[in-house]
Fold each of these.
Amino acid sequence: MSETPVPQHEPARPRRPRGASVAELASALGAAPHDPGDDALHLTGVTLDSRAVKPGDLWSALPGQVTHGARFAAQAVERGAALALTDEDGSALCAEAGLPALVVPDPRAATATAAALVQGRPAERLATVGVTGTNGKTSITTAITRTLLALGVPAGVIGTSGTSYRDARGADHTVATVRTTPEAPELHGILARMAEDEVAVASMEVSSHALVLHRADEVVFDVACFTNLTQDHLDFHGTMEEYYRAKRLLFTPEHARRGIVCVDDEWGRRLAREATIPVTTYATLPGVEADHRAVAAHSEGYGSTVTVHGPDGERTLHAALPGRHYVANTLAAELLLAAIGRSGPEVVEALATEGTVPGRMELVADDGVRGIVDYSHTADALEQALTTLRAVPGTRRLVVVMGAGGDRDRTKRPRMGEVAARLADVVIVTDDNPRTEDPASIRDEVLAGIPEDTNAQVHEVDGRGAAIELAVSLADVSDTILVAGKGAETGQQIGGIVHPFDDRLRLRDALHTARSTPRRVDADDMDEGR
């Protein structure tokens, strides 16, 4: 039996870097004086990681919470760094290692400027779409990219599910990335790689972390989109106000030329007022005024058909997945495509068939028991997913497998438990990505949000695989199982180790096994397990 080929990841660098001289870089940064003899150096790449330095690179040595990056200057020199970019503290450490340095007050912010310059300002050589918000970023950027590819347009996507693109010759490429929004050197390197392969459009998720930490600096998106704002990442931002202000940075002339903003929530309505670029609004909730309004939707198979009122009259869209939030995502994708000059019946048709995303309300089985895998890892996203599935015609009971990630915002854990118990018939609390935390402690915090008098049957299960198997054993004909939290991830992070684990494969296999040995489970057979 032949094995499925593993995608070969390509570096986040162009094959033929444009480069820049030290003199050009110093001028662009207004950098502190350096040895004039360094002006002739030609820089061909930029990196933050001393282990990833290539000969001719500019190495950014940043101050850190634990230690200064410049302490690794000797390693950078050994690997061929031509120059360091650092602050006053770092310059002394670089000098000890014999590495010349440009000195700036904020080397993290300066790194984006350096990366854009060295890579020849690649964001100006293709159309760019940036999407921010708590939920919907991956769905929208992936839908845009798949729609363009279906129309024969070379396009790429950068985000949570990875970085990939199709070049002008029709060849597919995958680039290794580890963050939703890569660090500035990788981002500009990826865009330069896309530009040299004649990609026409790059769609990108822009996280709040990236905006605060200057990862997306020096990219002025042709159009930026805001989807929503719900509680998440407060371990980083502290408050919802700071979280909102981070998102708002994208809607300034430094980051985008125009905006598309969902005004279904108050954060979106506020952003539409406060943005300092031209903004077009859209809404899916009744009574909310917007430039484009989804006024009616009805189920059609597993998706839905929606009527939209806009400045030019009425039109019809088809969302490939169920639920209001996927109607919103489809409408956002259509508006973003139109903003970069891609509109018309062929775009609407392609969007209707290509607007699905692996691990986002993904239907993995529908033979008696419906099996769904979704990335919903916040209380709001989980509520949307469960509410959507409850409304799908023919649904009897909802069985949800869920948990919460470790080393992330702990305050959302009890809220997720409360939502699950309020909206599902059976709740199985298990492990998501515990990372460095104790899995049992995370489960306890999720369970703490579930009222003692809940009508849901509640189970706590140590081990995600066992939890999925329990869900299948409890499900009967016309029930829906939702495995929430990890989506299309193919690994589970436990104690610093990533173990192979794919919710879709586990759920599909468990349902297939159950079909081979059918067993009817009545409500009286189920134990609350608390």
Amino acid sequence: MAENISTTSSATNSFSSTDTAILDTLIPGYSLISRFVVSRFDIDIASYLQYVILLATFGASFQYLIWYTMNVLERYFVSTAEIRLDDEIFNYFMYWMSRQPHMSKTNRFVAGVKTNGYWSDDDSDDEDDEKGMDELDEPGSGENEPTFDEYWAKLMGRDKYRTLRYTPAEGRHFFWFRGRPLMLERQQQHQSTRYVLNNETLFISCLGRNPTIIKELLNEAQQSYVERDGNRTVIYRGQRLYASRPFAWYRCMARSPRPLSTVVLDQTQKDEFISDIKEYLHPRTRRWYSNRGIPYRRGYLLHGPPGTGKTSLCFAAAGLLGLKLFLLNLDSKALDEDNLSSLFSDLPRRCIVLLEDVDTAGVTHSRGTDSSDKIKEEDSAEQAKEAGGDSNNPENEKEKEKKEEAKPNGITLSALLNVIDGVAASEGRILVMTTNHPEKLDAALLRPGRVDMSIQFGHTTQADIKELFTSIYTTMEGDLPRVAASRRLTNGTHKSVTNGSIHHAYTNGQAENKEKLQQQFEKDQETKIRLQELRVRISRLALEFASIVPNNEFTAAEIQGYLLNHKNAPEAAISGAEVWVQGIREKKRAQSNLIA
């Protein structure tokens, strides 16, 4: 009786040959595995297969339930900010993130020294200079200062090791900000055919439906990114990093502002230039333009011989007004009308765009293909068809390729005019064009609305020569070593000078600091007296030098280059001025003879 029950049970649990074939199709190797398990362990897999399927179904359902629950929580109980690479806020956040203390503790990060939007050579160099300024100041500035060889050895040893920067690697990262836990997720689409960084995205998430903490973080990141520049002038360049990427503005450097007084130009012209820009940037001017339907744009043309200070004036104006400077080279063959329009549309509302040497960019008289040329091409194509010419003929294809190669690449004059003051032209920016030959420019480019003010730069006058000499040899505040200033405060002592008296505060009963401060104050007074005497002496020497160098014959760059060869010896510069003048004249005469 028991044998009959066992037979019936095994018959119920076993599968027919059809069922086994179906299982072999769904689970490859099922028959082989089943026979092996039965022969080895005397266990029929078919008896437990339904439990396995039930467990797998439960696991899949549980996994889906978890995924669905997480989606619901993220949708209704988590706030998320998305940051894309093509937006400048990406640079803000990555700059802030790379300088956070918790980045030194993470075990998944991207390490590098490569320059990009949020790391730059000038930024790292400035940080290193600030750290080592007290040690690596000018040699010979004090009694205990190192020699040049010692100074240079330290400097070269430091420059061998570039500052390492760390940013979060791809994936999820958790960190704390103002007592709140946040999550950063960095994603990259590796399956894209384009460069991988083009598709990089950041996600910042926090618990709760209130995203205020994320906005505070982004505001702090932006403030940290902007404050690193201080009052320096940030310069961008329009270019493309890879052939597959479009043109865009990339930050190339941030330089200390150039004083307007160092630009060699008639003071009246400088004042008119700056006053015109200030009037244009005033809020009431924009409203005045808008009320009268006039496009809110302003253009300037700086023209004159090379080396007369055209670019320097533009850079000084940007530093004086705190504007960003955008440089664009129109001579690039890869730059077309679409890229040019995209660059101008990405400009901020208040900035200076500098187009240098527009006469050499090949757009002075090029208006693209004329309609008459197109008609001639169409007529010749129709005549070729009537003559029985085959469009697929290899000879015809070669002729087409030659014509396409002969067509001019780059920007045409029409494209430039459309970008400057076309219907879709950007507003609020200041356009500055420089040229050495204004007579080569097309009249359409110089009409009012495109060029509203023209400033001519010429050779230096006697007043300019004197000003150049004085600026080169006068001791500036930044020329004094910073080591002496740092030594004034020691052991927690602070001093201030008022009406020739010294007020001091000292800690730990160290009264000897008073005597040190008194000595330092006397040294400072002696230094001021020497500087005043030096200024009087330099002013006298400047008059002597200006009397030797002729007026309206040399550019500011030529005179400055000569003075830099004698930057520590003004008397030597004066004694060799006549020989230098004769040499430059003979050189220019020889060049003119070659051209003739």
Amino acid sequence: MFSVLKDLGWFFRREKRRYTIGLFVLIFAGVIELLPPRLLGNAIDEIVHGSITADSLIKYIVMILALLLIIYWITYIWMRSLFGGSNLVERLLRSRFMTHLLTLTPSFFERNRTGDLMARATNDIRAVSVTAGFGMLTLVDSTVFFSVVLLAMGFLVSWKLTLAAVVPLPLIAVAMVIYGKAIHDRYSLAQDAFGDMNDQVLESVSGVRVIRAYVQERLDEKRFGEITDDVFRKNMAVARVDAFFEPTIRFCVGLSYIIGLTYGIYLVFRNQITLGDLVSFNMYLGMMVWPMFAIGELINIMQRGGASLERIDETLNSVPDVQDPAHPASVSEPDGIEFNNVTFRYPSSPIDNLSGVSLSLAKGETLGVVGRTGSGKSTLLKQLLHEYPTGTGSIRISGVPIEDITLDRLHSWMGYVPQEQILFSKTVRENIQFGLERASDDQILEAVSTAAFLSDLDTLESGLDTLVGERGVSLSGGQKQRVSLSRAFIAEPEILILDDALSAVDARTEARIVDNIRSRRAGKTTLISTHRLSAVEHADQIVVLDGGVITERGTHKELLELGGWYREQYERQQVENNLN
């Protein structure tokens, strides 16, 4: 049950001073809180014996008020320390979680659902932070404070009465063990269900246009209703066990009160304790109510925190498929790219997605990659990003194996525009500046002009300061592509990878962009995959892929003379253009 505290040991060591002060002051507060009941009991005994005076009464009142003020201030100190630690571990874990996600490769995100990762980054981290704050409070109060009160009852009042009153406590211990295991198992299932619900919400929101277009609103509502019902049932299963904690403790506390009051009155009549002792004892017994509840809260919090930390650690312990080399090579700039008999298969694929691919590209050259849908064009280009472990064969940049180059260094050379454009919920300006932080307006306009997007700025409500909406929802497909292109152009990368990045623009706009690339990227390497062959006519080298294998290669002119798939596709597209 307490393994979660051991797993959080790194944090407690890091914040040793904070927790040492907080726990010491919390224990000191518990000891101080024992004094007012004892003073009140002494005052009652003096009243019963008729020895109370005005001076002694004032003395008792002043002492109790002074103790209450002291308790007030030291309570502030321990609450600030412990609950401040709770907020701190939440911030640290969330930062560590997000930082780690950014190091993981695509295969991890293929295995894990986005909604579940969101649940771990929110609910689970919050549950762990509660363990580091309120959990430490319940741990101290259910052990140290409970023991201090118990000792005060025994030494300051009566051991016989104390032993009789704590007879029901073993019942609490047995119940907590049973409830704790049930809470752990059910809470894990509830968190998994919450992740499923997150996934459904993400899919429904991102696909709302398709849902409406196919009139599937009712079906989607039904599907979401089933998922929320599942979340409800699993959380209710947790709540049903959780609901047993308080009644069980109240029952045991009630038994303790009955035993303490009954046996205490008997001892008063036998003159073994005074009436003041009995009043103090009952106040101490009342002070034990919270530690008894704290036992239940402790089990509950530790089990929830343990289940959540297991889920968080599962992600944090995931190792990226591709890591930096132990002894990286020193490469100043990418002079050339070489694929030598590369065969590659995605982790989830049953067949090779590239097979025996060999090609070389000198610095400043342009490579065109064409082929049927699913032929491996994107897979070939992504090999340069090194997102997956290299298969057989080798990929070299400047004669150095890509595995010997650090990922940061490798990616610093790259400008990548994927098939699916990802824009952030910011302005057009901020999306473009993502490629070059603090880029000037002149640089932005230069990149926008290269992407043939300059004329479109006038059609936007606020020009560069127009909010594009989540994932660029307020822009057309062609506009999103050109903002993405601008983001890549502004970085002026040594290697520009365009993965079917011109598919949403018309032929005239495409021609302008290609001309701009040729004139403004002279001396820099460019790789373009496309279905529209006009985008790669100018390329120094064109390869045709089919089933992950290069079936044709050469310049535009050479491939037309070859009379294969490339020529057939080019002639078909020319006919379509003439008809349009």
